[in-house]
Specification:
By secondary structure, this protein is α+β, with helices and mostly antiparallel strands. The chain contains 6 helices and 13 strands. α4 (about 210-220) packs antiparallel against α5. It starts with a strand and ends in a 10-residue tail after the last helix.
Length: about 260
């Protein structure tokens, strides 16, 4: 089972064909995964696939449209126009969230253990990063923020901290944990297999410690309850007594998965 992030998205059924212009020819096979501009002026990325309706998702990169292979572009434009107000508001909300959680520049900030750390950039011959509870200092030849170096340091720390935490919590609740590994998934904080293998996202180190533990508790509970039943939530609450509060609070950090 996977601990999925909350998406700012929705699904629309195709509009009434009688109210639309004459159907266009079927889309070319290579139309998917392309940047486009809608007739109402909103840029979007189009992904086509095997689905029955048009889906709209707002990410930190902008508007993503997922549509069936057979859907003509005028129907996609109609769907965007119909929800234009919601799209504009959602995009603004995503931009605010991103600015609050990450401003990767000199004098900006990064999120680390739930705290906004000031970023200091230095130019030097040897690339290095100092990431602690007090500061984030990056030294690079170009003197620019290196997102890969920041992610690599988070992964290094996550590999050192998250597996012992998961094993300790599993032992506390007598749960059959087999292995723990670090994930770089862009859509979920963690996952668990029926074989007892738990994967935890390295970005968990950016969350407040109590929310990090909540995700670990969520995945560990799936070791014995591969569902979201009452028994599952009872295990989560045993490991995290404030799980209901944390379950809501973590939604504000979902944008981190997309950075």
């Amino acid at each position: 089972m996977a601990f999925w992030r909350s998406l700012l998205g929705g699904t629309l059924a195709p509009p009434d064909a009688a109210a639309l212009p004459r159907p266009l020819p079927a889309p070319a096979a290579d139309e998917g995964h392309r940047e486009r501009q809608s007739v109402c002026g909103i840029a979007y990325r189009l992904e086509r696939g095997r689905r029955k309706s048009i889906g709209l998702i707002v990410t930190v990169e902008g508007l993503l449209i997922r549509a069936p292979h057979w859907t003509p572009l005028y129907e996609i434009d109609a769907a965007i126009a119909e929800r234009r107000g919601w799209i504009v508001e959602a995009m603004a909300r995503q931009a605010r969230r991103r600015a609050e959680l990450a401003e990767h520049r000199d004098g900006g900030h990064v999120l680390y253990r739930g705290e906004r750390l000031p970023v200091e950039l230095r130019a030097g011959p040897i690339d290095r990063i100092e990431l602690s509870d007090a500061h984030c200092v990056l030294t690079t030849a170009a003197g620019r923020f290196d997102g890969d170096a920041f992610a690599a340091e988070l992964k290094r720390q996550a590999a050192r901290e998250l597996p012992p935490l998961a094993r300790e919590m599993a032992a506390q609740a007598a749960l059959p944990l087999a292995t723990v590994s670090i994930s770089s998934a862009r859509t979920m904080w963690g996952s668990c297999t029926a074989q007892g293998r738990v994967r935890l996202n390295y970005r968990l180190l950016q969350l407040p410690p109590e929310l990090m533990r909540h995700v670990v508790a969520h995945e560990l509970a799936h070791l014995v309850e591969f569902n979201h039943s009452r028994r599952f939530w009872a295990i989560v609450e045993r490991l995290d007594p404030a799980s209901r509060l944390h379950r809501r609070a973590i939604q504000a950090y979902s944008v981190l998965l997309e950075l």
